[in-house]
Amino acid sequence: MEGALESGIVGGQVAKPHSRPYMASLQFQGQHSCGGLLIRKDFVLTAAHCKWGGKQEMTVVLGAHDISKNEKTQQRFQVAKYFQHPNFTGQYDYDIMLLKVNRFLKLYKGCNNTCTRIEPY
């Protein structure tokens, strides 16, 4: 995703537009703060440290290539519920969290969870 803080990326390359349809931008007050992975049409997987202590509302942006632009492919959701790992203490152990979004997202070629599909045994 373009438009994120470039200083945190070293030696990276710009991805082909919409080649990572499962990637999410987690935002506070319109600013990207963390990334996430769409695992179901109503759940995003991310790091537990991405939930800040206050009552700030987190927005999940999916279907974006450049989050600094208002692309017609983008879908925005509010987080309905946070599921931090119960053993997370603010350190890097157990630094995992599920986010349930407030409604189902529309899946399409540029916004889906194709990388996480698991075939039955």
TrEMBL record:
Class in the EC hierarchy, top level: hydrolase
GO cellular component, one term: extracellular region
GO annotation (BP), single: proteolysis
SMART domains: Tryp_SPc
Pfam families hit by this protein: Trypsin
SUPFAM superfamilies assigned: Trypsin-like serine proteases
Sample GO molecular function, one term: serine-type endopeptidase activity
Protein EC: 3.4.21.4
Catalytic reaction(s) noted: Preferential cleavage: Arg-|-Xaa, Lys-|-Xaa
Gene3D superfamilies, per database record: Trypsin-like serine proteases
CDD domains hit by this protein: Tryp_SPc
Subcellular location per the Swiss-Prot or TrEMBL entry: Secreted, Extracellular space
Name of the protein in its database record: trypsin
Organism: Austrofundulus limnaeus (Annual killifish)
